Amino acid sequence: MKSAVLVLDVQSKMFTDQPRPFEADEIVNRINSVTARARNTGAPVFFIQTEVPGYLDFGSEGWSLEENLVVEESDLRLRKTAGDSFFRTELQDILKSLEISDLVICGYASELCVDNTTRRATGLGYTVQLVSDAHTTHDKEHLTAGKIREHHNITLSMGPTITAIQSENVEIHC
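Above: the chain's sequence. Below: its structure in token form.
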């Protein structure tokens, strides 16, 4: 089993505009910890950035990665236009070429991109470690961001191929 880390949509616009997402700074620190461990073991790290015309235009300041996120030259970067990181991207082909079977997923937004990518990954045959304390979102009218994250940690990890796991307990396999 070989692992890869997918960091979804930790982009400037979502993390610097007010109000900021739930535990924004803590999330970035936990992601940095997980990606550092992955790099130290030789596992690939992917930074996946969404594009929304007129809101998150490719190359714009808001589209850029959050300023405190540690990104290395060896990291892979992908652009996407949907919540599912596999949809119309080369992600699946790259993972296959690297013989990856386990994905470590973290980032933004718990109820959208994190959820969609996690579900699609398992449908494609990957096991997933959902980093339970390293994904986030914004409060909604009906539910706080903390409750949204808690809900997704529970519901996504009900099946046999997804494990919700704290950042310090993530296992990176090479």
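Helices lie at 12-16, 24-41, 91-97, 110-123, 145-156.
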